[in-house]
Amino acid sequence: MASEGGEKPEVFGVERVAVTTRSYDWIIPTLRLLAFFATLAAALVMALNKQKKTFVVATIGTTPIQVTLTAKFRHTPAFVFFVIVNGIASLHNLLMLIVNLVGRKFDYKGLRPLVIAALDMMNVALVSGGVNAAAFMGQLGRDGNSHARWNKICDKFESYCDRGSGAMLASFIGLGLMIIVNIISIVKLRNHKLVNSSIVP
Predict the structure, then answer these.
(1) What is the mean pLDDT of residues 133-159?
(2) Which residue, 36, 146, 181, 197, has most beta carbons within 10 Å?
(3) What residues does the Casparian strip membrane protein domain cover (predicted)?
(4) How buried is 104 (Cβ within 10 angstroms: 0-12 exposed, 13-18 middle, 19+ buried)?
């Protein structure tokens, strides 16, 4: 309630919320930087993952018939999608780091926190879909599927599968970091609205 002298009403807790928010401003950029490196590493390792191996498929007399096969990520659509979404996520985190440094000057009507939270959520969904699709194909390559008569390949292309597993692990780490960033962004958005709604002219 306003005072009789026409002074502005006191708003308890608003200053504390603002100070607390500012004191933890370093957390999101740090998590974003770690997520950037994790998703970038995942995309690069999977994109560069390739192994060539020669197999003996038959023997004519004493002469072995050999065939050389190459395992590449682009042979599997799920791995291609994995590379694309992790590349998008790393680019997103890099752009958000830049926005965190210079974007405060271009905050149109206070929409910046809302837009960032929405973009974070979209990237979490993309990376989650990509890494889970890749993990499914990785499990199929490691164990095969006897019911569908799909043979495993990881007993033949060990290095290829090991590097793919490392890329998936990095992507899962990046996904976890991005989920934490998304949660913090939503909490900050709520605090931002709380501060704005509490300041009554």
Answers:
(1) 84
(2) 181
(3) 26-175
(4) exposed
Kindly report, residue by residue over 38-55, the tens digit of the pLDDT: 999 999 999 999 888 777
Residue 6 lies in a domain: no
Instruction: Report if residue 171 sits inside a domain.
Output: yes
Among positive and negative, which fits the CA dihedral 35, 41, 47, 53? negative
Any residues with CB less than 8 A from the CB of 150 and at least 6 apart, and which? 140, 144
Are 131 and 171 within 8 A, CB to CB?
Answer: yes
Adjacent-strand bridge partners of 51: 71
Domain that holds residue 128: 14-198
For 85-118, write each residue's pLDDT tens digit. 999 999 999 999 988 887 666 665 667 778 888 8
In a domain, 66, yes or no: yes
* Closest by CA position to 176, among listed 89, 88, 105: 89
The type of residue at 52 is K
Q: What is the mean pLDDT of the chain?
A: 80
Please give the tally of structural domains in the chain.
1
* Beta-ladder partners of 150: 145
In whole angstroms, give the CA distance from residue 4 to residue 142: 76
Domain assignment present for 9:
no
Nearest to 117 by CA among 184, 29, 53, 35: 184
Lowest mean pLDDT among 4-8, 54-58, 181-185: 4-8
